[in-house]
Amino acid sequence: MNAVPSRSFSAPANGAAAVQPLLQVENATIQYKTPEHLVTATYRVGFDVYESDRYVILGPSGCGKSTLLKSVGGFHPPVQGSMKIRGKEIVGPGSDRMMVFQEFEQLMPWKTVLQNVLFPMRVTGKYSRAESVDRARSALDKVNLGKFMNVYPHMLSGGMKMRVAIARALAMEPDILLMDEPFAALDALTRRKMQNEVLELWDQIGFTLLFVTHSIEEAIVIGSRILILSPHPGQVRAELNAHEFSHANSDDPAFGALSKKINGFLFEDETNLAGAGH
Ligand SMILES: Nc1ncnc2c1ncn2[C@@H]1O[C@H](COP(=O)(O)OP(=O)(O)OP(=O)(O)O)[C@@H](O)[C@H]1O
Q: ipTM value of the model?
């Protein structure tokens, strides 16, 4: 485990220091202009996401987590700094970065599971009709929903809906999946089930995930690495490895120790920042 008090991070959890990051965020200052105010959402935030990372952005409400995700998605560029995917500057939305939406209710109830998964491929015209169908079937097989292609979303459990939403994103072959507090509105048991579903799928498929949450426990369970942001405007407080933790070992003292450490970073007084990570 490792806490680094600088603003930019580059060491992957697996120690493959020579590997190029998939996503590089450098000194990203992101602002919103309203008629009355200029709001600085994040200030000089930097981090690297490597292939197959489950990278979690954790921080208090209003620290700019969603804003960072929107910027990575290409919807709101930083005013300063840069964001690159596979070394190329992010200049707008693209199918290399697919958002899996909150609560998965974006599935269209009048379309079957297969038609839902086909939809982004149809809209973007990225693939021919036949290839789109092949891709949709293959993505549904990957998430173990091959037998449910012709049913409608209301006939699925919450976990199955989430898997459809993930299949829909994966069918576009993105470099990275973006999830913004996807389980925030769920009860504790369902939330835990969903978290385990994501982890099982990740084990099977090995996608790269950028995940936003304000729950410390969720960050530890989902994340292989966790970026901790300060309150508004979001600045990097630390990056911690968490790849060895899951619900199965949440009673371990090491899990509790990491949780405590994260608490410390989250609630740290600004004046103590110089000692962060030591
Ligand atoms: N469209 C907008 N116009 C103006 N200010 C905005 C806009 N969206 C967000 N903000 C401001 O930017 C800051 C960061 O917001 P953001 O939603 O990214 O935070 P967050 O960490 O995701 O919060 P939460 O955990 O509550 O979702 C906040 O001060 C917020 O008020």
A: 0.98
